[in-house]
Design goal:
Elements (H helix, E strand, L loop, with lengths): L27 H19 L10 H14 L9 E2 L7 E5 L4 E5 L10
Parallel strand pairs: 1-3
Antiparallel strand pairs: 2-3
């Protein structure tokens, strides 16, 4: 049986104490090949050092989701300064910060 991961979850058959190495139900070589393939697929999906500074991949995902939800507003970003917001403004980089800027002051032929 070839592994299904990452397209689907695998249902690997574990040998029992009564299974011989040449069992038709769980052939020994196939069991090792399937497990090796599954581990390689997991490594490919998770990459190198998948947990980074977190204890688990799950903790890293939770932290990333938290960062996304707290950064969903521009004021949450460290290089954005928005003052006196009015309709029709755009963000413009001034060399160190993204600031709100009147769209009418732009000179680019109206191409963005």
């Amino acid at each position: 049986m070839a592994i299904q991961y990452p397209a689907a979850l695998d249902n690997l058959i574990n040998p029992t104490a009564n299974d011989s190495l040449n069992s038709n139900t769980v052939p020994h070589a196939t069991q090792h090949a399937n497990l090796n393939d599954a581990v390689e697929a997991l490594q490919t999906t998770l990459g190198i050092n998948p947990h980074g500074s977190h204890l688990t991949v799950k903790d890293r995902i939770i932290a990333a989701e938290t960062n996304i939800s707290t950064q969903s507003v521009l004021n949450g970003l460290t290089d954005v300064t928005i003052n006196s917001v009015t309709s029709g403004q755009v963000l413009r980089y001034n060399g160190s910060q993204w600031i709100n800027y009147a769209e009418s002051n732009l000179v680019d032929g109206g191409n963005f």
